[in-house]
Amino acid sequence: MTIAENSSLVRSTISMTKQRLNRQWILTGLLALAAGTFFYIAFRQHGQYKKDHVFIEIKPIQTVKGWGYNIYTDGKVYIHQDIVPAIPTRMGFRTRDDAMAVGKKVYDRLVAGQMPMVTAKEVQDMGIIPEDSTVQH
Question: What's the pLDDT score for residue 129?
Answer without folding.
Answer: 78
